[in-house]
Amino acid sequence: MARCGLLGLCRYETNKLVRIQSVRLGSLKWILNATILLFICIMMLWNREYQEFDLVVSSVTAKVKGVAQTHLTGIGDLVWDVVDYSGPSQEKNSFFVVTNVIVTKNQKQGKCPEAPRNGRLCRTDKDCEKGAWGQQNHGIQTGSCVKFDVLKKTCEIFAWCPVETKTNPPRPALLAAAENFTVLIKNNIRFPAFNYFRRNILPEMNDAYLKSCNRANDSLCPIFRLGDMVRDAGEKFSEMAIEGGVIGILIKWDCNLDRLMQRCLPRYSFRRLDEKESNRTLYPGINFRYAKYNTVSGVEERTLYKVFGIRFDVMVFGQAGKFSFIQLVIYIGSTLSYYALTSIVLDWLIGTSCYSAEVGQNYSEKKVESVQDKQKCVLCVSYVDENNIRLLKKSLKKSLQDVKPMSVQPRKEDTGHLRAALSLLQPGVDVDHDAQPLLNHKPEPKPKVERPSWCKCDCCAPSSLLQEELCCRQSDGACITSSPLFERLVLHRPLLEAVLLYHDPLSAPADRGRTAALRHCAYRQYMSWRFGDPPVDTQPAIPSCCVWRVREEYPSPDGQYSGFKPTRMVSMQACANGEV
Ligand code: ZN
Ligand code: ZN
């Protein structure tokens, strides 16, 4: 048993192929394969599939430059330089530019009326609760109701007075001139896997270049005009400046680090990141407050600024690729399956009527080998008045004669058998000279009353088994057993003995003379004659008249016969050796 298992291990199974000799199919195959190869190569070069990639790691700093002059009511002309408009804090990878401002001057700690928008209107002191504080309030209520202006009275509060009363930013924006400010973006990148460093200020850029370059004529220039960036993002600076917003500066690095095609340059693009429809958005833009403090004759004062502006967020992304043999092998491996498309297309083409129907039939016959389940025994039937062979399944209700065929196939001649049988029939080739002369037996006509309903030839005998109820004919007529050829091919004793000797050349004459062996050989002769080469996995069924005629010629001494057992195909050897 162990040897058996080992033998099973030392075994290799491979697919059987069908080769079609066809110029059309052959050239189509090569055209398809060449197209697939071309596609694979283009994809490989286009997507650089032969490279391994690493993602960028980067740092960004920005330096804004520019000066703007504004006129503020109550303050007068004011010059804003970078310290004023950059806002108090610099966030990581972003910078802020003030574009609009609401100034509230000379605020001192004290008591003053709340702005009607933030507090509530009142008539008497009873309306104002002392010590109360609301989320919108600028300070804490003192409990008095005081005049805000000529018309309105509001609760008095303890706060930085006077309170900020303006809510809407000035239009047009006070610092709309910030459009002409410039920013120098410094971006250092690194690809850790390849230990590769790079800056967006390229080595060949010198001081003179940076002073004069602009994006209109050099897309690599790292100095940007704010107005240009906002315009590239599809916005209008003058509108965006009023309430502020967020602009994204996208720097994309797509680097090829292979020596032959080395290239690693940044690509800049701009996009607005916040919701721009201010009439649809509840709190549009960006704003925040800060104050500048000073002391006037011992009292602390402050100037409050509510600033609106544009925040620029710099986002860096990208990757670098370098040739990798492993990646190349993986890519080639992943593309091999595409070649299966060729066989799918060609098989489909052969299967459809687009190609020759004859070739398709031939191809599928050669390619597909159908195997029947052992349980489903398919019988084949050959009628003497019909050229084809019928394939049918045994029925439990109908006699075999009446079962409808599953399919009808042309008869395939077993030429080897035909030639052998004919050569044995040649005069002077009689192998057994002791044999009786050719039988001249006429079948005794059976009494007419016995003819079963399914018989068409008048020679069949009734049977208790439905599978044995089969006649030699489809329509009424003469029985095949009445043909002289039946005598010669099926019943002729010297022929049967010669066939038995052919299969077992050393058998004793007594063995060959056994009636059981001769009877079974006669059945086999009948099958070879009438079915030729029967369809694969089917079993020929012999008509009742022929069975009875053979039994009559070679009877069983005890009158017992095994009958028709539809099982798998029997071999010639089984025919020669024993029961069918
Ligand atoms: Zn019959
Ligand atoms: Zn018959």
Automatic annotation (TrEMBL):
Transmembrane regions: 28-46
Principal place of residence: membrane
Q: How would you describe this protein's topology in the membrane?
A: Multi-pass membrane protein
Q: Which InterPro entries match?
A: P2RX7_C, P2X7_purinoceptor, P2X_extracellular_dom_sf, P2X_purnocptor, P2X_receptor, P2X_RECEPTOR_CS
Domain P2X purinoreceptor 7 intracellular, residue spans: 380-565
In its UniProt record, a GO molecular function of this protein is: extracellularly ATP-gated monoatomic cation channel activity
Which reaction is the catalytic activity of this chain?
A: Ca(2+)(in) = Ca(2+)(out)
Q: Which domain of life is it from?
A: Eukaryota
Which keywords annotate this record? Cell membrane, Disulfide bond, Glycoprotein, Ion channel, Ion transport, Ligand-gated ion channel, Membrane, Receptor, Transmembrane, Transmembrane helix, Transport
Q: Where is this chain's protein located in or outside the cell? A: Cell membrane; Membrane
GO biological process terms, alphabetically, are: calcium ion transmembrane transport; response to ATP
Q: What does this protein do?
A: Receptor for ATP that acts as a ligand-gated ion channel.
Quote the protein name from its UniProt record.
P2X purinoceptor
